[in-house]
Amino acid sequence: MDYILMGIGAVFGGPELFALGGIGIPAAPAMLFLxxxxxxxxxxxxxxxxxxxMAVSLPILISIFGVRPDALLPVFGFLIGIMKxxxxxxxxxxxxxxxPGTPDAFMTTLDGYPMTRRGMPKRALKIAHLSxxxxxxxxxxxxxxxxxxxxVLVERFLDLPEKTALILLSLTFxxxxxxxxxxxxxxxxxxxxxxxxxxTGQDFHPRLALGVDALSHGFxxxxxxxxxxxxxxxxxxxxxxxxxxxxxxxxxxxxxxPDGLRKGDVRRILPHILRSSLxxxxxGALPGVGSTLAATLGYTWGRRVHxxxxxxxxxxxxxxAPEGIAATEAAxxxxxxxxxxxxxxxxxxxxxxxxxxxxxxDSIGGFNPGPGVFTFSHPQINPxxxxxxxxxxxxxxxxxxxxxxxGVFMRAMGIMSRVPIRYLLPVVLLVTLTAIYVQDPRLGALxxxxxxxxxxxxxxxxxxxxLPFVIAFILAGSLENAAxxxxxxxxxxxxxxxxxxxxxxxxxxxIATVFLAGRAPGERRG
Amino acid sequence: xxxxxxxxxxxxxxxxxxxxxxFAQSAGWTPPGPITLMIxxxxxxxxxxxxxxxxxxxxxxxxxxxxxxxVTGNSGLTLAQQLRDAPADGSVIGMIVSExxxxxxxxxxxxxxxxxxxxxxxxTAAFQLGLVAMANGDFASWEAVEAAHEAGRPxxxxxxxxxxxxxxxxxxxxxxxxFNIVQVQGGSEIMNGxxxxxxxxxxxxxAQASAVAGGEMVNVASGIPTPLAESPDAPTIRExxxxxxxxxxxxxxxxxxxxxxxxxALSGAIASVVQNPQTEAGxxxxxxxxxxxxxxxxxxxxxxxAAVEDSVRLxxxxx
Lengths: 526, 319
Hints:
heterodimer, B: D-Maltodextrin-Binding Protein, domain 2
C-alpha cells in the first residue's frame, strides 16, 4: 500500500518541467499529456504508427532528460502517452476516409466509413473513442491486478531452469503466431539471437566479432531496433511507392451533418465493449499476439452475436453498425495495457510498443523490467517497485486524459490523414536518423541502422516477420544468462531443462506450439 | 588584470587549505568539451547508480558536462578496450573496479588491456565484500552452510566476476565444500537471486549493507581484511580456508598519457564529490560502504601494482 502511494507521489512529485504561475508543473504528467497528443496525431496519420513515434522520440527524450533515475517516469510518461494516444487516433482516418491509420484499425473502416457516408462521422468517432478508451481502461485494470500477482508467482515457484524454459516457450510462441509461417518466425528468432550473440557473453574476448574492430562492441541496440523497424519500413514503403503498389487517395469528402451520440447508443454498444475488452486483454497478455488478431476476433465474435440479436431496423456489421466499431476498437485498445503484463512480470516484450518501453528502461537504467521489480522488500524501499507503481499511475492518468480531452483532440486530427506520403517519408527518415545519432553519436551507429534497415527490407520482401527478430534480439541476453545460470546451478546438468516437471511441461508446450501452428497454416499477422 | 591578482591569491590560499576540493576549481584545467563517463556496470545496479551520482556531483561542483554511458561486458574489459583507444585528454574517463585492471587484465593476457595502458584517477569506495545469504534461510551462517553440505545438499553460490568465481572455487577447495558456482551480472542481481531462492549464497561488494542492517540478509563471511561495517563479527574467508581476500575498490580511470593537470583536476573533482557526505554520491557511499576510501596519485599507482601481483598468484594457485 505504501508503495502505491509512493508511486503516485513519484509521478506528481518528480522534477518540475516548468513553472506556471508560480506552480511547478511536474514533468511526468506533463510529458504524458504531450505524448498523448503526439500519439493521437501519429495514430491519425496513415503510414505512421505508435511504435514508430515511440522509437523516434525515445533517443530524443533521453537526450533531454538524461539517464538519471528521475528521468524514468517523464520518459515513460511520454511513451505511454503515445501508446494510448495512437490507439485512439488510429480510428480517425479509418472512420473518416476509409484508410486505417494503424493496421489494427482496418476492421474499424468496415462500419466506421459507412456511418460517415450516411452523414454520421461525429457519432462514429464518438463511439470509436468511447469504446477504445473503455477497452484500454479495462485492460489497464487487468494489468494492475495481474502483473504484480504473476511476478510474485513466477519468483516464488519458478527456479532457474524453469525461467529458461519459460523464455524459450515465449520465443517459440512468438515465432509461431507472428507472420505467415512458423518456419519464417523461427528463422527471424534465430537471426535475432545470432545478431545479439555478437560480442556479448562472459568470455573475456568479444565473441563472433571475426576480428573486426567495429563488431567487437556488438550491435548497438537502439540502432539495430530502429533500423529493422523504421528504416526497413521506409525502404519497403519507398519500394511500394516506386512500383505503384499503393495509391493513397485521401480526397473523399465528408458531409458532416448534425450528428453525435444518440440516446441508447451507450447501452447498445456496452456488451460489445465488454466482450471485446475481455478478448483484447486475454490476447494482449500472450506475448507476440498483436492487436490485429484481437480486433479481428472481437469483430467476428461481435458480428455473430449481433446477427442473432439485432432488430430489423438496426444496421448489420459492415453496413455502418455502431456495434461493429465498438467491437473492434475495444478489442484492439484492450491489447495495449495487457501487453505490459508479460513485460513487467517477466521482462518479455509482447509487441513493438513494449519493446520500446524495455529499451527506455535499459537506456536510462534504474529499472529492469522482470520479476525482480515486484519484490516487496522491508524495511528498505525497492525503488523499482516505486517506478512500477508510478507507471501504473501514469497509465491511469493517461486514461483519464483520454476520456476527457482525447475525444476533442481526436476529432480535430482528421486533417493528418491528408499528408501525402512523399512529404511524410523524408521527415520520418530524417527524424529517425537524428534520433539514432542523438543516442549514439558515432557514424558507425548510423551504418548499423542502415544495415539493419536493409535486413528489415529483405525480411519484408521475403514475408519474414520482423518483430520476432527484434524480440529475440532483446531477449537473447536474458535467455543466455538464464540458461548459463540454470546449468551451473544444477551442478552442470546438461538436461537441466527437463529437471523438473514445470520446465519439462514448458518445453513440451514449446514443441507443441511449433507443431500445432505449423499444421494449421493460415493468415496470421501480428 | 590587477583585480585578478587577489582572486588568484585567494584561489591559491583556498588550494592550500582544502587541497582536494580545490583541485576542481583552481587547477586551471577545463575539459575540452563534455566528458564521456563510461560505466562498466549493468544499468540500475548499485555501482551504476554510484557512477551516475558521481557524474552529477562533478557537474554540480565544476560546471563541466559529464555524459554517462553504459559500456558493459567482459567484466569491464570491453570498457578498458574502448577507453584505451579514446583520446587521452581527459574528455573520456571510465568507472570500473580495480580488479578489471588487476585480475581480469592478467587473466586475459592481452597486452592492450594491462594496467600500464591506463591512468588511474581516484578510488571512491572499498569493497565491503561479504558472502551474503538470506537471514531467514537455510544458509544464514557458515555452520549452516557446512551442515547443508554434509546433508548432501547442493549449494548455489552467486558470483558477479571471474575473480569472484575463482575465489568461490578456491574457498571451496580450502573449506572442502564444493559450490555450484552461478555467474550473474552484478551484486544487485545476486541479491535478487537470493530473495527469489534462485541462489543460496553470493558475493556482494557493498550493496547488501542496508539489507543486512534491516535484518533481511546476513554476511555469512567477510571477504576483506578489515571488519565489515555491518557485520564486524563475521569470520573472514581466510579463517574459513581461503589464501586470499576478495578486496578491491571502485575506481575511475583515464587512458594512459593524459596531461598531469587533467589527472589532478579529475582526481580532485571525483575525490571531493565522494568525500562530501552532503552530495548524493557521498551519501550513497557512506550508506553502502561506511564512507569513501579515496586513493589518488602515487598511492593509487602502488595499490594497483600490488593488486596485479596478487592476481598473478591467485591465478597460479587456482590453475
